[in-house]
Every structure is written in C-alpha cells, then in structure tokens.
Amino acid sequence: xxxxxxxxxxxxxxxxxxxxxxxxxxxxxxxxxxxxxxxxxxxxxxxxxxxxxxxxxxxxxxxxxxxxxxxxxxxxxxxxxxxxxxxxxxxxxxxxxxxxxxxxxxxxxxxxxxxxxxxxxxxxxxxxxxxxxxxxxxxxxxxxxxxxxxxxxxxxxxxxxxxxxxxxxxxxxxxxxxxxxxxxxxxxxxxxxxxxxxxxxxxxxxxxxxxxxxxxxxxxxxxxxxxxxxxxxxxxxxxxxxxxxxxxxxxxxxxxxxxxxxxxxxxxxxxxxxxxxxxxxxxxxxxxxxxxxxxxxxxxxxxxxxxxxxxxxxxxxxxxxxxxxxxxxxxxxxxxxxxxxxxxxxxxxxxxxxxxxxxxxxxxxxxxxx
Length: 370
Hints:
By secondary structure, the protein is α+β, with helices and mostly antiparallel strands. The chain has eleven helices and 15 strands. InterPro entries: ACT-like_dom_sf (IPR045865), ACT_dom (IPR002912), Acyl_CoA_acyltransferase (IPR016181), Bact_Acetyltransf (IPR050832), GNAT_dom (IPR000182).
C-alpha cells in the first residue's frame, strides 16, 4: 500500500516582488505538492502568506522549507494540517463563535480554533491587568504566547509553538471574547464537581505550572493504575514527559484538582482522521469509584465535540473495562472490539445528555474560591 500524502500548513514571508509567490507554488508543484488553500495575513511591514499544502508521499517538512527558501522566501512556521484547515479564517471564526454561544463550556476550545493555537487556558487575573492582548511572558519576544482579557476579567493565555501569533489573529480572538460577553455568555471558567461522597473538586485545563503536581499524582498512583494508563511498567513519570502531558501538540489536557492536589488527568490527542481523537484517563487510586473519571470523561467529550470530533478512541488492556464502565456511567454511546492485542473503545461525542456530578457555573465559582 502506498503511503498516504501528508497535509501541512506553512506560513511564508516573501519579499514584495512580482511573481514571488507564484515561483514558490511552481517549485512546490515540481515536487508533486498540491496547494489546497491560500490566505494572506497582514503583519507589521507587510504580509505573511499561509498555504495549506498536500505533500507527495515521502516528502518531509524540511523538503517544503527548502523549496520555500530556494525561491528567496522564509518559512515562518509549519505544522501538520487537516481538512478543517481548508476553511477560510472568517468562516472558521464564525463557526467557533456559534459553538461557543451554544455551549459556553467550549469557549476555550473555540478560541483555540480561532487562533490555531496549541493550547488556550484560563488563569487567575493578575494585579494591574489592563486587558491588553500582548504576550504575558516578558521573555516571549517571538510572540508564541498571547494574553487576552475578557470584559468580566477572565485572563486567557494562548500558546502556539509552530508560528508566532499575528495581531490580526489576536484581534479576532479578542472580538470573540467581546462577542460572548455582549451576548451574556460567561467567559471561560473552570468547572466544579462534587464526588459521590460529597468532596469538591475543580476541573480545569492543565497548564505549565502543574508539572510538580502531575508528577506527585503519578507517584501516588499504584503500579496497576499506571500500567493500565501507559501499558508499560513504571513507577514514576519521566520528567521530560511532564510538559508533553500538560501541553500536547494540537491536543487538550484537563486536570481534576482538590485543594492543591491534582488527583486526575485526562487527555485528547488528534488521530490521523480529522473527526477522531484518542482519549486517555488517569485517576488516583484513592479517588477511583467516586465519579471523578465520569466527570473528567464528560468534560473531555464536551471539548472534543466543540473541536469537531465525532469519535473518541481509547486503548485498554483486554481485561481492563474501566473506560467502558466510565463511558456507560456518563451516558455516552460506545462500543469496543479487540484490536492489536488491546481493547479498542470507541466513544461517540454525539449530543446526548452527559450525566455526572458537574455543577453549575455559580457552584464552580463557589468551589474554586473556597
């Protein structure tokens, strides 16, 4: 079977000379590449051209970058793309806004789509916040981090490793926040839940400052729980994994926190098919059987639905049916089959009512502040 062509999103800076872009597209065509979409992004002093390119089988990202450089261009960023990237930016922004209005819990995911960001998280407002959308990191001179503030004071941090944010993109994201505020939709907030025995937790996006808490979570988990999650014998998670666990490329991480402890971790990782993502859960042993995994899976399904995924896929050991039972408790349609020596669990993100102990926004604020 021939290898499947890969699709890439490239941002290219060119000199303002006639035919520069045409020469690049011709060179790409000579390498059996197909330019599927083109958009122009205004930047200070000029523009950046964004191309969505279907590369020939076996062609590497470095080959695309070399083709751009050969015609005098500079590749400002390259990342894997899928069919959803073929939608023009205004249409994608309108669709994301519509999803956020219908489902306020998907506001962070809508912002991530608008910004084509790796992650978008809500953080406590810092003193002296001015509402600027400039980077919140003084060392971030390249513009890979951005800070947005909603009208009701919620601070949103966005991160994108593959290319710097352009001001026009940040303006779109700020406009989305303003639109949600004007329509009475609450800004993105962490969600709260009560366990089956009455303990209060907060579900929120994972962030860079959670490395130590997530390392402690793994240290408190039994070998069995870690083996069921990673399918490998391990006692602690290697330090180099922590950043990837909390900020997976193009993925989503959600943590469940009680006081200052992270007691559970869930992830969504896009698969090769654009409408599917892999889901994984890790719940500390002492918190298993108390509704934490059910609520965490429900939060991940809502995030997946907002991102346009129709199916979540989880891989379990053949004798381990924890994910199947969790999906059933959450009221999610699911199926399973043996594949490659593991149990493949398929969970639909269809608009069924997701059950579980997630509380209202007012309860969220009470728990988060308490």
